[in-house]
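forwarding from the other thread:

> can someone predict this with cytidine-5'-monophosphate?

sure thing
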Amino acid sequence: MSAATPVIAIDGPSASGKGTVAQRVAAALGWHYLDSGALYRLVALAALRAGVDWTDMGRLVGLAERLDARFAAGEIFLGRDRVTDAIRTEECSTGASRVAGVPEVRAALLAKQRAFRQPPGLVAEGRDMGSIVFPDAGLKVFLTASAEVRAERRLKQLIEKGIPANIQTLVRDLRERDARDAERPVAPLRQLPDARLLDTTTLGVDEAVAQVLAWQGERASSR
Ligand code: C5P
């Protein structure tokens, strides 16, 4: 896609609020939105449904290459199935971070992610938006918060969706997932030198969105 189409890359750990902030920024600018984590979650769901083992690299890569993912009107589809909520379970979260460690799975999902770069612009969120997928993004943000605050936010989300959860398990799972995402050899999660840090431990969504829009505004007016 046109490299001239502007991109805001928002990376950060699980449940840091990236999704909400990125969607609101995209809506405010009238830009497209990419939830890259959903693609890894879809591969994990496809693997769970097909009974594929997390160690079976060949079949995981095959699932990623043939992934029939569709995003429409806020809903996510795997083939014909609406799986918007099904990909948010803890089982899919853990599975996603496992499949995300396989370099060939990441390679298979690269073109799918870049295809989201369409005029007038794209707000993309994930772990490697600024480093690998859109290294030329005009604005890169590293959005984070403490593990405890992130676990509380995830608990609230899950309860709202009627998915049973418990805070201790969530903190433990988040820490394990953070460690796997940060320590993996391929596309590890880390703050890039050219990314702005946005810590939302004590910041509300409105303030976080306003900050990203202010940074984007500075960029636009300095060009
Ligand atoms: O962002 P979300 O929690 O939905 O992502 C699920 C998992 O997918 C993450 O734990 C991470 O391992 C993986 N992921 C990734 N690269 C991305 C987005 C997500 O490795 N760009």
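Residues 14, 36-37, 40-41, 93, 96-97, 100, 126-128, 177, 181 surround cytidine-5'-monophosphate (CB under 6 Å). thats all i got for now
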